[in-house]
Amino acid sequence: MSFDSTYTRELPLVPERSSFKEIDDVIFRPVEEAPTRKWFIAITISSLALMIGAVALANTFYFGIGTWGNNSTVGWGFGIVNFVFWIGIGHAGTLISAILYLFRQRWRTGIARFAEAMTIFAVITAGIFPVIHTGRPWLAAYLIPYPNQNSIWVNFNSPLLWDVFAVSTYFTISFVFWSVGLIPDIAAMRDRASGIKKRIYTVLSLGWRNSNRHWQHYERAYLILAGLSTPLVLSVHTIVSFDFAVAILPGWHTTIFPPYFVAGAIFSGFGMVATVLIILRKVYDMEHIITLDHLEKMCKILLATGSMVGYAYCMEFFMAWYSGYIFEQFVFINRAFGPYAWAYWTMFSCNVIFPQLFWFKKIRRNIPIMMLLVILVNVGMWFERFVIVVTSLHRDFLPSSWAMFYPTWTDLALLLGSFGFFFTCVLLFVKVLPSISLAELKAVTENAQPTHKHHH
Amino acid sequence: MIGKIKNKLKEVNNRNLEQKRSDELYAIGALFDTPDEIMDAAGKTTEAGYEEFDVNTPYPVHGMDQAMKLKNTMVGKTTFIFGFLGTTAALLMIGWMSGIDYQNIIGGKPFFAIPPAIPITFELTVLLGGLATAGLMLTLFNRLPWINNPLHDTNYIKQTASDKFGLVIYAKDKNFNIATVEGFLQSIGGKSIEKINFFEVREDRVRTPIFDFKFIALLAVVTVVTAVTAYGILRYVLFLPPFDFMWKQEKVLPQEKSTFFADGFSMRPPVEGTVSRGYIPYEYQGLPDSVVTLLANPLPINAEVLAKGKQRFNTYCSPCHGYYGEGDSRLRGQFPNPPSLHTDKVRQWADGNIYHVITNGQNVMSSYAKQISRDDRWAIVHYIRALQRALNAKDEDLN
């Protein structure tokens, strides 16, 4: 790998040229110090939300899906909306860690580990929803092709089955990728820790000893994992979009869905990563590691993907008109001007209009405005899935089956609970594992690599 | 109570983790300050002819592979092999399951086709390739986990995990000699030269701790516990409420006693004066066969009809009459043996008589009218005729 130092200088990764020791201290501080009051407040709130979600979950298990707002017309309600939303959030992590790695975007090092962790938690959160949506979650094993007592196999032609494979593979590979990246950092923590902590980190580090005989295989494996994850991340939301696109329902049955979903996923994922990072760097004084430059770059990606999503929204309307198919046309006019118009325009303004403000450098470098905009992105992307699922379903072909979807308290509590679960995981992660990749960060600081005077 | 636990935890936490070391030397390490220095040192060490040495750095230093003269890594090849295995396994799995073993018509699509198989094939390729890459990189190529390596817990390893660059020469190197190695490390600019001894418990010698008795015992316990749990769940737990919802349904089963109907049967007879759809009454029901000679076989004789007759005969008649109608029954001894169907009596019967026996039954042989449709019964008659002719073939039949 050749090393281009002019690039490093253009964007100093660790501006106030800190020594490696200082980097260690900053990165390990959240892990080694006793939790702060801020952290306790945060985890209280998030675990409260989690508990509320748990009550709703128990309610769902006991009484069944009837406790949700779904009805026979709108058969897919919050369950699927939340699933697609959380899966989408997960995509930014793999994009940052794998795709930007392959493109040698070295600014990613500061945020990659954290984004990967978010991926894992988001995919777990997402995975809960389809399982409880089946109504009998204890039968979920039937989704796996195993020789069962009924001598039947799963339907390999169904996008829902592809989903099972895509999401579980995505989770497994992301988890492996993340764990492999963690090993050297855990080893570094082991060598600083004592007592029980040291024992735990010793086991988790697998006895890593920073040997260059190991680094050689390690780096190659990391590169390959990045290479494997890249098509994987694109495939996952493509396959999720097949859940809709392969159906023949107007509003779902369209070929633009795969790229549109992938762009939307990256968009929402970056929105979430930015939201959490803005808070994190403040709480842990990491402003010189997760710099304003990082956030600015993320804003640029938000601008790009937001515009792609906007293009897809417009293209859907164009295709509805161009197809000459009245049902398709009705669905789209109904989306924008029907009973759910408020949801549609919330989505449109949050995802397409507001992010356009990122054209201005002033706004890209203004933390409070940025924070507001990225939260709006999260809201908008949740509504996008709501619009796709609910507005396509609620006006059936027969007007006698037209219906509206009204969420129940269980629906809302489950949504809240999913945020609670996600943020609890994030907070625990920040507390027990290094949330910035130490080895990678050191490798890209200035003067970290030999000047190649002696060897080639 | 809580206080006790707290004290216990504190005690465990403060327990001294330092392991005792033996007198046997494992390696000598030296530290360097900059990446340039370590590159230089690594190059010189290879030039000096040392083979059993290593460089430990907080992050991968680029160009070190060449300086240490390391062979190219084989990780990529493993990924390819396992990824390819994943592809093949996925295609074979989908092909066999949905194309052969469980053919199910879904929207008139082919049982197996490549396009719908692609998503899962791709996912399994990535899954297997990725797992093998990470797993084999750690275990096969890097020989991890190895948490008891003597290098651990030394100043050397702690420094190299943070901001120093270390070079270590192992005692097992063929050119190893304490004095020369120390001198050599000094000459290439190494600082804080450190002699690292083996631990007293030489667990590094148990190169494959998986053959350790404790580990095998653990595996055995895990296996037994998993198997017993799985068996218990599948055999008992799944039959408890609420998992029994599939068979504990509120419905009547045939043969079940009913408390609801006055006659105590849960099966209901047809309503008086009705027949089931497609039922055609048989006019000679219950009459002796002398009356029915007039019935003629309405079906033509052709391969299709004979094949049908053969299939039905083998299913319904052969258990008692044998595959060739010779009375060679598979039920021999459990049911009165039927007579041969090749007797002169049956051969001279009109088709209608055989049809009558099937439809009406004869003595201990009961009626098959309910099980076998009218046409199929006639087809069986043709087939019996074919059997009869086969056993008493004339010369002209050979043409």
Report the total helices of chain B: 12
β-strand percent of chain A reads under 5%
| Biggest pleated-sheet summary of chain B | 4 strands, antiparallel
Write down the overall mean pLDDT of chain A.
88
Strand fraction of chain B equals 5-15%
The major sheet of chain A is characterized as: none
Number of H/I helices of chain A: 16
Order of helices and strands of chain A: HHHHHHHHHHHHHHHH
Shape of chain B from CA axes? elongated
Number of domains of chain A: 1
Estimate percent helicity of chain A.
55-70%
What's the Cα radius of gyration of chain B?
42 Å
CATH superfamily of chain A: Formate dehydrogenase/DMSO reductase domain
The number of distinct β-strands of chain A equals 0
**Estimated structural class of chain B:** alpha+beta
Here the CATH topology of chain A equals: Formate dehydrogenase/DMSO reductase fold
Spans of chain B of at least 5 consecutive residues whose pLDDT stays below 50 are none
Shape of chain A: globular
Regarding quaternary structure, how should these chains be classified? heterodimer
Helix-strand pattern of chain B? HEHEHHHHEHEHHHHH
CATH architecture of chain A: Up-down Bundle
